[in-house]
Amino acid sequence: AVVSTQSTGVTANFISSLFKLYSDLFFTYLEINPLVVTNNQIYALDMAAKLDDTADYLCGDKWRVAEFPAPFGRKSWPEEEYIKDLDEKSGASLKLTILNPEGRVWLMVAGGGASVIFSDTVCDLGGASEIANYGEYSGAPSESQTYEYAKTILSLMTRRPDDKGKCLIIGGGIANFTNVASTFKGIVRALTEYKEQLQNNKVSIFVRRGGPNYQEGLTKMKNCGDMLGVPMHVFGPEEHMTSIVGMALGKTPIPDTQEFASGIKDNFLFGKHDVTRRSGNSESEQGGPKEKRARNENRGKARTMTPSQYNLYDKTTTCFVYGLQLKAVQGMLDFDCACRRDVPSVAGIINPFSANHNVRLYFGSKEVNVPVYKNMSEAIQRHPQASVIISFASLRSAYTSTLEMLKYPESIKCIATLFVDLLYQSGSFSA
Asked: Rounded distance, CA 124 to CA 26, Å?
């Protein structure tokens, strides 16, 4: 458009003022069309604009009458607004959307990704018409925050009884940082308060979770189920994440016994009570004080068992990693910590292409030095208790390195070779 000489000044002032308004009031979009300019006046005949609703705390007073519609043009429920307010005041993430208040399937899922997977699984199994809500809690919410979140969902769930009964799915993946025991403590408080309503609504509860202190959290949940007097089925990370959805919808059978590592020191890899797999007669292996002293004296020495006597893995097994695969080693240390090992499972790294040195990695919240050895013989000599080698040898070096490993049968009892190059070349590698 061409602006006359007489209108240049007023047009420039208008554009400058409009940009200041756009910035100060946190517009994300602003369009004026048509715009009429006379010698000394400007007329905005039509305008479309969008505001950034997350800036409400900065300029809500300036907006005054601005109201933001709920998604999909529907009015928000008071409970949704309450959870939104909690979310805005918290460093954690708390989300709730009510889809069908009369639905029979209610979700209380930890994690944004997990919430999508659980919702999709309900729909895939034919429960789309019964799913009542969508939401998630994540980002290490406190006990009080999960209590408020759970109480809000339970309030909605128990308002309209259904003769068929209802199911509550308390699910999630394996948490990295969220204290499962703490968040479950808040959920247990809410469930306890709604004991009578849960019974009246014939609610069945399905729980699946893993992560820091998950054993303690699942134990609390199991004890809560016994107290509530409603069916509650509790599973740990040994159960597939979405398997409880099929159980809740009646598509798959519910196991007669649900086992998880109920004790804080238990390890879900090795069963419910004994974290050590044993071979042979358990009484003779445990033995009396004399046998125990002998085992303690032999600890740290190279193992010289016959194949029939040797037990491949237990909670004290340590290994070498062949190849400078720091990401893999850190993942192993993280898993060790999750399994509540006292010491890391990686005794050292063997890397023929570098001099001896240490690498600093994390074992839980503390840093540890993991030695890197150039020579395999030196590594085995310094760590005679290590009995496993996990090899990331390349396609070119896999043959020669494996032959070298086989030279130490008195120490090395298991060689696990990961042919990463072949997997990538065949296109069959998956994370």
From this structure: 41
